[in-house]
Amino acid sequence: MTFLAESAKALGVTKSVLCFFKREPQRADELDFQPFVDAMLTVCRDHRRDPSGVASLRTIVEVFDLIRPPVRAATEQQVLSGLESISCYMQWIRDTFPDARSRPEKN
Question: Quick one: which H or E segment has residue 92?
């Protein structure tokens, strides 16, 4: 399991949840996922959901930003932290937003 593949899944699910609640942020760059963090916090606040998983989303976005073009140096520990955050985040999003679960996209 690679960080990029797993983060793409997590960010795709996040986008689906944000769309479900009509909160997908405008982004000038499709690879800029930082606005997802604030948007997810808003959804949690507006719909009285547990926001604890947003910390994992923040870590995912930070590590993604380190390895996306232009490539910067991400340490092995940062990538491992990102993978752990993805696992925690995916469990949190399933538990917190069962009504907004996305259907897996077809390849």
Answer: helix 76-96
pLDDT in tens, 28-67: 888 899 999 999 999 999 999 999 999 999 999 999 988 8
The string over 38-76, giving b where at least 16 C-beta atoms fall within 10 Å of a residue's C-beta and e elsewhere, is ebbeebbeeeebebebbebbbbbbbbbebbbeeeeebee
For 62-76, the pLDDT digits (tens) are 999 888 766 667 788
Residues in contact with 83: Cβ distance below 8 Å, sequence separation at least 6, in sequence order = 1, 3, 6
| Residue 66 and residue 74 in contact, taking contact as beta carbons nearer than 8 Å | yes
Query: In the numeric block, which tokens belong to residue 90?
Result: 């995916």
What span, in angstroms and rounded, lies between the C-alpha atoms of 2 and 64?
12
How many angstroms separate the Cα of 4 from the Cα of each of 19, 22, 95? Answer: 22, 26, 23
Matching residue, tokens 């000038």: 28
